[in-house]
Amino acid sequence: MNSLCKTMDSILVLRTLTNGLNCIMEKNMACLGSSMKAGPYLESFYHQPKRRIVMYKVMIVEDEELVRRGISLLTHWDQFDMKLIGEAKNGAEGLEMALKFRPDIILTDIRMPVLSGIDMIDTIQKTYSPAFIILSAYSDFDYAKKALKMKVSDYLVKPFSDKDLEESLKNAIETIVESRNRQVISQKLESISNSTLATFNQYLSQHHTSKNTNLDKVLNIIHHRFSDNLSLKQIGEELLVSESYLSKLFKEESGYTFHDYLIQYRMKKACDFLSDNQIKIYEVADKIGFKDQRYFSVIFRKYVGMTPMQFKEKLVVKKNDK
User: Fold this and answer.
1) What is the DSSP letter of 86?
2) 3-state DSSP call for residue 82?
3) Which numeric CATH code is attached to 197-321?
4) Four-residue CA torsion sign, 295, 297, 300, 301
5) CB count, 10 Å around CB of 264?
6) What residues are paired with 82 via a beta bridge?
7) Are strands 131-136 and 105-109 parallel, antiparallel or unpaired?
């Protein structure tokens, strides 16, 4: 207790001295500025574009004031590109602050008055999903098991060291970055489902029928032999009609060229095949008529907006979330 108080007093003294030195330096620079002109080097230095830093918002929810204040004052938040936005002494205050300010990381005790950390986490996760770091004692192990089931980022046992806390903060950042990457992929996938794949509905159905018998035969060949090395010339020979006739007919009736329709249908089938966790990407490429996996990945990304691996990983994430 005495050691913590002395440390806090030292921090306040250092901050006072630092502020004083900053004021002196600012005055001296102002005086120099009136009598000297910055050279080319200084000009380029002061006009360097600033690196955009992502600041992660942090909140502490802890009923023990010494622990709460100690973490608040002794943690080097800037080192982790973090900003402490608030402190709460119980779960109810923490819940109110979290829903208002939406911190990225919440350090919280489990056993607290008014509202427990577990109940607070459960309520917050119904609105959004920050990274949680649990601060708890050995006697709270049953609570800790519940917290771990709620997919918290980390669990620290009191008393913990500065190094332990720093590692937990790093883990929390990794959790946030991973979560945001998943959201980006999810948004892309939803966009694909609502746009690119949606445009397939009219003509990519195996139940599509046309007034023109020849067009129906072409569609039937594509739907059943999409993995073959198909060409309009080859199909024309099978149907005993000219390639130019089929090309014009296909464009007028479907709105697609034969090649575009074939590629998009293959991409649709690739999406279907990729939903199987056991299948390999090179196997999917082969199943839809691509002998080169790398070329398949390029075409898939062009039409779908992400690589086959990203698409596959997103499907796994969605299944796990369910």
Assistant:
1) E
2) strand
3) 1.10.10.60
4) negative
5) 19
6) 56
7) parallel
Lowest model confidence (mean pLDDT) among 104-118, 183-197, 222-236, 291-305: 183-197
Q: For residue 84, list its beta bridge partners.
A: 58
Q: Which residues contact 121 (CB under 8 A, 6 or more apart)?
A: 106, 108, 132, 147, 150, 152
What does the block give as tokens for 268? Answer: 């649709």
The pLDDT tens digits for 37-72 are 444 433 443 444 455 556 899 999 999 999 999 999
How is residue 227 written in tokens?
A: 């993995």
pTM: 0.50
Output the pLDDT for position 157.
86
CATH topology of domain 50-181: Rossmann fold (3.40.50)
Q: Which residue has the higher pLDDT, 17 or 251?
A: 251
**DSSP conformational letter for 83:** E
Domain ranges of the chain: 50-181, 197-321
What DSSP character marks residue 53?
-
pLDDT attached to residue 283:
94
What whole-number distance in Å separates Cα of residue 294 and Cα of residue 289? Answer: 13
Give me the residues paired with residue 86 across strands: 59
In the numeric block, which tokens belong to residue 19?
């502020």
Tell me the two tokens of residue 232.
Answer: 């309009």
* Structure tokens, 260: 């575009």
CA-based nearest residue to 94, from 104, 82, 107, 75: 107
**Which two three-digit tokens encode residue 96?**
């109110």
Average pLDDT over residues 153-159: 87
Here the tokens at position 103 are 């911190």
User: Which residues does 206 contact at the CB level (< 8 Å), separation at least 6?
Assistant: 223
Residue indicated by tokens 């830093």: 53
Q: Quick one: CA torsion of 304, 309, 313, 319, rounded to 10 degrees?
A: 70
User: What does the pLDDT look like over 11-36, one tens digit per residue?
Assistant: 444 444 444 444 444 444 444 344 33
Which of 37-51, 100-114, 119-133, 307-321 shows the lowest per-residue confidence on average (mean pLDDT)?
37-51
Q: What are phi and psi of 142, to 5 degrees?
A: -65, -40
